[in-house]
UniProtKB/TrEMBL annotation:
Gene3D superfamilies referenced in this protein's UniProt entry, alphabetically: P-loop containing nucleotide triphosphate hydrolases
Pfam families attached to this UniProt entry: ABC_tran (PF00005)
PANTHER family, alphabetized: HIGH-AFFINITY BRANCHED-CHAIN AMINO ACID TRANSPORT ATP-BINDING PROTEIN (PTHR43820:SF5), HIGH-AFFINITY BRANCHED-CHAIN AMINO ACID TRANSPORT ATP-BINDING PROTEIN LIVF (PTHR43820)
Lineage: Bacteria, Pseudomonadati, Pseudomonadota, Alphaproteobacteria, Rhodospirillales
Name the UniProt record assigns to this protein: ABC transporter, urea, ATP-binding protein, UrtE
Coiled coil (residue ranges): none
Organism whose genome encodes this protein: Magnetospirillum gryphiswaldense (strain DSM 6361 / JCM 21280 / NBRC 15271 / MSR-1)
Domain spans labelled ABC transporter: 2-236
Entries under SUPFAM superfamilies matching the protein: P-loop containing nucleoside triphosphate hydrolases
Record's keyword terms, sorted: Amino-acid transport, ATP-binding, Nucleotide-binding, Transport
Domain of life of the source: Bacteria
Molecular function GO labels: ATP binding; ATP hydrolysis activity; branched-chain amino acid transmembrane transporter activity
Length: 236
């Protein structure tokens, strides 16, 4: 279980997160929704340890990780698919996947065969450079690279941004399979999905949180979500 409790985050004098709380349980997809610039990425960076919080607590699997450096959070099973993918353009697909070995013990440094079953295109493109892949293929590679770390919490920051519909569908299918613990190589996972694309979020999310101006203003189970209330905070 991930528990973010009442965190505040600043960039200099700018107050980017204001008393934000969020929970994400294993076996469930938790969607964080909101317009551009409301603080979604800042919240993910706070969970990952890439940005320090001024106050509040981040708890993962019962331990307080608020001040743990990012590499130790990766070792604690937190995997991240960053916005914009951040694929290494000059490394091959295989080498990009191997960068996911960093938090693993030596004996665990393998690429699970299931990764190529989830994303067959990566097997076909194995020796190609990251920079030669399409945006959608790079997004699949970014998800695969996070999976190589064997995460128990998988954070995806806007994985559908700029991606064609057929690949969005594939990515959605993979997220569902992972959440339902259907892939042998991986254990039970909590998934946090940042999205602006409401329909994709609604289809996948078990739980949701809507952010506006640095705060979580609505949250709950998707089954009880009032769509009109959420949409009000998504469209300009
Ligand atoms: N490194 C930074 N330094 C200063 N201000 C920042 C920094 N990163 C983000 N901000 C500001 O913090 C606020 C929240 O940004 P954040 O990227 O978390 O929002 P977001 O909801 O993820 O938006 P997007 O959908 O565009 O990624 C914005 O006003 C942004 O300009």
């Amino acid at each position: 279980m991930l528990m973010v409790e009442n965190i505040d985050l600043y960039y200099g004098a700018s107050h980017a997160l204001r008393g934000v709380s969020l929970q994400a349980a294993k076996g469930r997809v938790t969607c964080v929704l909101g317009r551009n610039g409301v603080g979604k990425t800042s919240l993910m960076r706070a969970i990952m340890g890439q940005q320090a919080v001024r106050s509040g607590v981040v708890q993962w699997e019962g331990a307080d990780i608020t001040t743990l450096p990012a590499y130790e959070r990766a070792r604690a099973g937190i995997g991240f698919v960053p916005q914009g993918r951040e694929i290494f353009a000059r490394l091959t697909v295989r080498e990009n996947l191997e960068t996911g070995f960093a938090p693993l013990k030596r004996a665990e440094r393998t690429i699970p065969a299931e990764i190529y079953e989830l994303f067959p295109v990566l097997a076909d493109m194995h020796s190609r450079r990251g920079g030669d892949l399409s945006g959608g293929q790079q997004q699949q590679l970014a998800i695969a690279r996070a999976l190589v770390t064997r995460p128990r919490l998988l954070i995806l920051d806007e994985p559908t941004e700029g991606i064609q519909p057929s690949i969005i569908k594939d990515i959605g299918r993979v997220i569902r399979l992972l959440a339902e613990n259907k892939i042998k190589a991986f254990g039970e996972m909590a998934i946090v999905l940042v999205e602006q694309y409401f329909d994709f979020a609604k289809e996948l999310a078990d739980d949701y949180a809507v952010m506006d101006r640095g705060e979580v203003i609505l949250a709950g189970a998707t089954a009880q979500m009032v769509e009109a209330d959420v949409r009000k905070h998504l469209t300009v």
